[in-house]
Amino acid sequence: MAISRIKKIELISLNEDKDRLMGFLQKLGLMELIGVEKGPKLVEPYVKETTLLEIEEAISYLAGFAERPSFLAGMIKLRPLVYTQEFKEIVAGFAYEHFLKELTQLRHRLKELTQRRETLIQERALVYPWQNLSIALDKLHPTENCAILLGVLRSRDFTSLSADLKKEGLNLFFEIVNQDATYAYLAIIYLKDDFEKLDVILRKYHFNCVTFAHHKTTVKDRLLEINIEVLILDTQIQDIKNKIATYAGERFKLMVVYDYLANIQRRKDEEKKLAFRQYTFLIYGWIREKDIERLKSALAAEFKAIALFISEPKKGEDVPTSIENKPLLAPFEAVTNLYGQPIYTDLDPTMYLAPFFALAFSFCLLDAGYGLILLLVMLYFLKKKQISLQAKNFLRLFLYAGFTTIVAGLITGNFFADLISRLPSQFALLKNIQQRFILFEPVKDALFFLGLSLAFGFIQVWSGVFIRFLRHLKKDRFAAFILDLPTLLVQAGLLVFVLTFFKVLPSFMFSYAAGVLILSAILVIYYHWKANPEISLKLFWSIFGIYSIITGNFLADTLSFSRIFALGLAGGLMGMAINTMLFPKGEIKGIIGLLAALVSLVVLFLAHLVNLAIGILGAYVHTSRLQYLEFFTKFFEAGGRPFRPFREDTKYIYLMEK
């Protein structure tokens, strides 16, 4: 529930220890380095950026030749797990530059062969309709007085073209080489002197001329040559692809080398922030207070000639924010971080949103069977070692959500919707156990479920304003007592009005609530009258302030929580519809009946998985929206900069100490 205290740190060391110290700090990953404006920059890049891009591009290319991951592994991309000793051996023994050179040559050769094959395929498509042409292609050239035209005409225009040519009285010869329902392929031999007249007639019928490359063979022979060459090219292309596929086995080593070089380059980039002197250099940075002693002891054990100074951040400095929560709350930091980082001097809302998020999610999904699947899938992935802490926290968020969804499903009688109630009488014990947990049924008690959702929304919205009230008690008591407290009283008074109207509370409470509302409205008007300098703003905010409390906080924000009711009810009804359509009915007779029942159950399970996926997406999106728009806006102000320590980072592998 807290934001870590950040201290400013300065390190002074000898230039000769620069590389060792920077590598040491990167491995520890405790400091965020601050750039120094003055001082010469003595750092040269360790590796060319193009080299890293070339390796990255090769990794992406070889992925197309690698084995496909399993279904579960494909759901969450798991990076290969690499231990330190294996990492060092690969870096030392893998000649990646030679490998990249060979791979590049293969890719270029594959590209050339593929382009050649495409050219032949296009040529084959062009000459195929002319295979009845008996003359060799290199003989299709004009003589002293005559010329030849090959072209394509719409079949329906051939008769009209023949008539026009005869009518014009041109001295020529033409033949239909091939014809189908759409086109006619013509060979025309004509006198050169008649070209202009012939051209006018041919243009009229959109005659498209065709030219061929010079070959000493006929079209049929050329087609045979093309087919033979395409077969040869296919064999060569497949051989190269097979060889590249063997190279795909080295993709893992490329990943290791990329992360190794990228970390060194990252270290070199950070060295640009150092301030150098003749014999020493200076490092400025931020560090969490809890990590100071660990850094001191680590430096003292490795370096003798080093000086370290700790100080408080100065006013106006850009201090980063690091959220620090206990393991139980840490998964909910993912929700906060997606909204924005809190300001360093502000509060961390994670503790406040955690129970509301878990409950809202569970009642949006509202099915014990779905919650059980979600919980088991998250447990499966959390057992994987090659998952970062940030990813594990995100998985734990859904693990908690799965657990609370199981509870919500049990108290509402939803286990894959109404599946248990459809079981035969032999499962009476299971049905009785389920009935003992049920507190209400969303479909039968829809109005109660809607009221429960709205009550939950009122509590969360009211809690958001109350948190703002507590914050203002420390910083601005005038706003706390003249604005925040009246806002709380207005919301409570309006709730009393509603409960009195529905005779949940006695009628005499109406007059007390009215008095509280009038007093609260006067205080809100007084606050805006004092806070705004101009008379127009005083009048506007005095009226709008009360209006926003009633329509914004009490009505709109509270009614927004009806989406919990809508999603929970819709998911349950969809599950019931799936069960109605697919759950086996009646007595199962014979092998065919058994097979039909098994197929039906498989389809039933797959349909529920689809409904589960839709439900999880809707529950997460809408629950997050409730936190961001209806809760955070009451008290939380984002805008902080996350604490980014200088440390080893990997893109493709997950590195572990053995």
Into which percentage range does the β-strand content fall? 5-15%
Number of strands: 13
- Which consecutive residue ranges, at least 5 long each, have pLDDT under 50? none
Radius of gyration: 38 Å
For the sheet with most strands, the description reads: 5 strands, antiparallel
- Helices, by number, come to 21
| Terminus-to-terminus distance | 33 Å
Helix content: 55-70%
Mean pLDDT over all positions: 87
Query: Helix/strand/pairing class, anyone?
Result: alpha+beta
Shape annotation: extended
Quick tags:
60% helix, 5-stranded antiparallel beta sheet, 658 residues, Alpha-Beta Plaits, alpha+beta, 4-stranded antiparallel beta sheet
Structure, described:
With 658 residues, the protein is of the alpha+beta class. Among the domains are: 141-211, Alpha-Beta Plaits, CATH 3.30.70; 324-446 and 605-635, no CATH class. Helix content is 60%, strand content 10%. It has 21 helices and 13 strands. The strands form four sheets. Strands 2, 3, 9, 10 and 11 form a five-stranded antiparallel sheet that branches. It has a four-stranded antiparallel sheet with strand order 6-7-5-8, with helices on one face. A hairpin with a 3-residue loop joins β9 and β10 (280-288). The chain starts with a strand and ends with a strand.
Brief rundown of the structure:
The chain has 658 residues and is an alpha+beta fold. Helices cover 60% and strands 10% of the residues.
